[in-house]
Design a protein that fits this description.
The structure holds two protein chains of two kinds. Chain A is α/β, with parallel strands linked by helices. Chain A is built from ten helices and twelve strands. Chain B is globular and about 75 Å long. Classes of the chains: A alpha/beta, B mainly alpha. The interface between A and B is large, with 41 and 35 residues.
Chain lengths: 321, 303
């Protein structure tokens, strides 16, 4: 395999289990947050990851950032396992942008200190060159240099998110994990941030893993989409393929659940019915069968095996050969 | 403090931001807070008096004058020679009160410092690392909470003998529980914020995260607990001295003065009331200061 074919980021059969204690003296039960997930990210692409709250998206982001160790399976960056890499070296290649810019910036530090922290931690440059880098990156994310002395509370949500982006990009990483970067922002600001992220990707040749529950955002930015349900990737396809012809009933329901601005269409009914299952006691067979409109007896007893084809992957009995 | 911006070396052209700098805002809020101003002034005045005791005190606090015993204070018909009167050994009451402030403030500061260091280290470690560390610290806190402070202090002082060092040591080793509880809870809260995850993802070391991301954000809670525990230590010293197991006579201490005056309380109530009132004022002032500092430094005030 040549160098360019090696995925810049790859997860191989990654599983993450937490043990949850029930009550003070209760028994610990395993909670499988991520179940046998394999993903590949090619250089320069944007993989969108969608799913409901609690399906394991953010846990996946933490594993990719090296903040949590997977229970089993491995994470590879440029073909090398994560465990074998120096923490600092890894930090230079993968950086996060978090969901809530009100919580991702330390309220006690000014903007200069926040953005310069990666340079300080990695001992890059002296104070004068750090100042220059911070000013450059502020210009790139569209903020005036004078905000350097401001504190986060003096800024708006959109400005804060620009600061968070500046902090993530100041070390010129290759991969950026965007964990719902626009869901805490006003609608009017969301598109500005998304356009900024898109421009930055083209300018610096970044690879994004873009986590979101907003399908419109995914359609706008991503090149490929993975759909997650209860810790498993149930479908993966190119953006065009997924939005035109969703194969998994869950993907279909997600697409139908998007609200439209047309009032006469009413609130869409996803037919998902009952609420999200308890991840401590996931349903037998296919995890999705209690909510699936097309569930058969087979789905209740046997877990579907993932099927790989030119379109991507699918994990559903309806599409089994 | 840590709140001042650390960008003194930034290009002077960048300094022309519109509006007041955070330092100016902090100063403005600091001086605009009435409770904080009152509390801090009282504590500052008492501190200066205590430090300058040999200069300020009109008499030697140990000098007895058996011919001038139990002189009433000026406002009860005494003379200006002894403004607050004299005690049962003829010692000047005002001078003893001034020297007693040294004991109270010293015990308050040092005991809060010792217990604050122990409790903060334990609480932050428990909150940040969680798991087994947390279980051990929580157990230690529970053990400590199960011990009656006054009884343990009395027992230790009875065994080791009462002296200033022993009282400070005992109180310092006994009063860390609230620090540990509050710091653990605040650390747990701050630890979940995304800026901590961001610092971890940057590759910052654990000491750096604790010192520059966690500590500044739990400092306001720490300040409040420090003031509460300082007041608590001062009151406990007074209690121990009152019971005869704290600071030993003839060292002047407010608790000891209340204790020595209690036999004459019905006839000469001012012997008890004066040190009691000063103790009350000091504790109230420290608590006002703590409340005020919390209000002033809370980051949500920063707009």
């Amino acid at each position: 395999m040549s160098q360019s074919d090696t995925p810049v980021l790859e997860l191989r059969n990654v599983t993450k289990t937490y043990s949850v204690k029930q009550g003070l003296f209760g028994k610990s039960k395993p909670l499988t947050a991520i179940n046998d997930v394999s993903i590949k990210l090619a250089r320069g692409e944007v993989l969108g990851l969608v799913g409901e709250s609690g399906c394991g998206k953010s846990t996946l982001a933490k594993i990719l950032l090296g903040l949590e160790a997977p229970t089993s399976g491995e994470v590879l960056v440029d073909g090398q396992t994560l465990g074998g890499q120096d923490r600092l070296a890894l930090a230079r290649r993968i950086q996060p942008i978090f969901q809530d810019p009100y919580s991702s910036l330390n309220p006690r530090k000014n903007i200069y200190d926040i953005i310069a922290l990666p340079l300080r931690v990695h001992g890059i440059g002296d104070e004068a060159s750090r100042q220059k880098s911070v000013r450059e990156i502020l210009d790139i994310v569209g903020l005036p240099a004078r905000v350097m002395n401001n504190y986060p509370s003096q800024m708006s949500g959109g400005q804060r998110q620009r600061v968070a982006i500046a902090r993530a990009l100041i070390m010129k990483p290759e991969i950026v994990i965007c964990d719902e970067p626009t869901s805490a922002l006003d609608v009017s600001v969301q598109s500005q941030i998304l356009n900024l992220l898109n421009e930055l990707r083209q300018e610096f040749g970044l690879t994004y893993l873009f986590i979101s529950h907003n399908l419109a955002v995914i359609e706008h930015l991503a090149t490929r989409v993975a759909v997650m349900y209860l810790g498993r990737i149930v479908e993966e396809a190119s953006v065009g393929g997924l939005f035109d012809a969703a194969r998994h009933p869950y993907t279909d329901a997600l697409l139908k659940s998007v609200l439209t601005p047309e009032p006469e269409l009413g609130i869409p009914d996803t037919h998902l019915g009952m609420s999200y299952p308890n991840p401590i006691a996931p349903p037998e067979g296919c995890h999705f069968h209690p909510r699936c409109p097309a569930a058969s007896d087979l789905c209740k007893s046997k877990r579907p095996t993932p099927l790989f084809d030119p379109n991507g992957r699918i994990e559903c009995h309806l599409h089994s050969p | 403090m840590t709140l001042a911006p650390s960008t003194n070396n930034v290009d002077p052209l960048l300094q022309d931001i519109v509006g007041p700098t955070p330092g100016q805002q902090l100063r403005r809020r600091f001086f605009g807070h009435r409770g904080l101003m009152i509390g801090a002034s009282v504590v500052a005045v008492l501190l200066v008096i205590a430090l300058l005791a040999p200069v300020v005190a009109p008499h030697d606090p140990y000098a007895q004058d058996l011919l001038a015993r139990m002189k009433p204070p000026v406002f009860l018909g005494g003379t200006w020679e002894h403004i607050l009167g004299t005690d049962h050994l003829g010692r000047d009451y005002l001078s003893r009160l001034i020297y007693g402030a040294r004991v109270s403030l010293l015990i308050g500061f040092v005991a809060a410092l010792i217990s604050g260091t122990i409790g903060t280290a334990m609480g932050v470690a428990a909150g940040y690392f969680g798991g087994r560390t947390d279980a051990v610290v929580t157990f230690l806190i529970n053990v400590r909470l199960a011990m009656p402070v006054v009884l343990v202090a009395l027992a230790v002082v009875a065994i080791l003998g009462g002296s200033l060092q022993v009282v400070i040591g005992v109180l310092g080793l006994l009063l860390w529980d609230r620090f540990a509880v509050v710091m653990r809870a605040s650390t747990l809260q701050v630890r979940g914020r995304e800026y901590v995850s961001a610092a971890q993802a940057i590759g910052a070391s654990t000491p750096r995260i604790l010192l520059s991301e966690i500590m500044p954000n739990i400092l306001n809670n720490l300040i409040v607990v420090i003031t509460l525990e300082m007041a608590h230590a001062i009151l406990l010293e007074a209690t121990l001295s009152f019971l005869g197991l704290g600071v030993q006579p003839p060292t002047p201490s407010w608790g000891l003065m209340v204790s020595e005056g209690k036999n004459m309380m019905l006839f000469e109530p001012w012997l008890v009331l004066i040190p009691g009132a000063v103790l009350f004022v000091l504790v109230l002032a420290i608590n006002l200061m703590g409340d005020g500092l919390r209000d002033v430094t809370a980051p949500e005030n920063r707009s």
